[in-house]
C-alpha cells in the first residue's frame, strides 16, 4: 500500500513530533520565545500537524488524478 501511496507517510510526522521525540524534548531549558522548550515544541508540533494532513490530502488527490 505504501508503495502506491507514499504520501501517506506524511501522517507519521505528527506521531513522531508528539510521541517519538518526547524523550528528547522533555526539558525546560532553553527558553524559546519566552516559552519553556517543551511547550515551544508542542506548539510547533500543533502547527505542523495540519500541514502534514494537507500534504497527505494533496498527494492523495494527485494520486487519484483529481488535480
Automatic annotation (TrEMBL):
<keyword id="KW-0472">Membrane</keyword>
<dbReference type="InterPro" id="IPR021741">
    <property type="entry name" value="DUF3311"/>
</dbReference>
<dbReference type="Pfam" id="PF11755">
    <property type="entry name" value="DUF3311"/>
</dbReference>
<keyword id="KW-0812">Transmembrane</keyword>
<keyword id="KW-1133">Transmembrane helix</keyword>
<protein>
    <submittedName>
        <fullName>DUF3311 domain-containing protein</fullName>
    </submittedName>
</protein>
<feature type="transmembrane region" description="Helical">
    <location>
        <begin position="7"/>
        <end position="25"/>
    </location>
</feature>
<feature type="transmembrane region" description="Helical">
    <location>
        <begin position="37"/>
        <end position="57"/>
    </location>
</feature>
Amino acid at each position: 500500500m505504501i508503495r502506491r501511496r507514499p504520501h501517506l507517510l506524511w501522517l507519521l510526522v505528527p506521531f513522531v513530533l508528539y510521541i517519538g521525540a518526547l524523550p528528547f524534548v522533555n526539558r525546560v531549558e532553553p527558553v524559546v520565545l519566552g516559552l519553556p522548550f517543551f511547550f515551544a515544541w508542542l506548539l510547533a508540533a500543533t502547527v505542523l500537524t495540519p500541514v502534514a494532513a494537507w500534504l497527505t490530502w494533496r498527494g492523495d488527490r494527485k494520486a487519484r488524478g483529481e488535480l
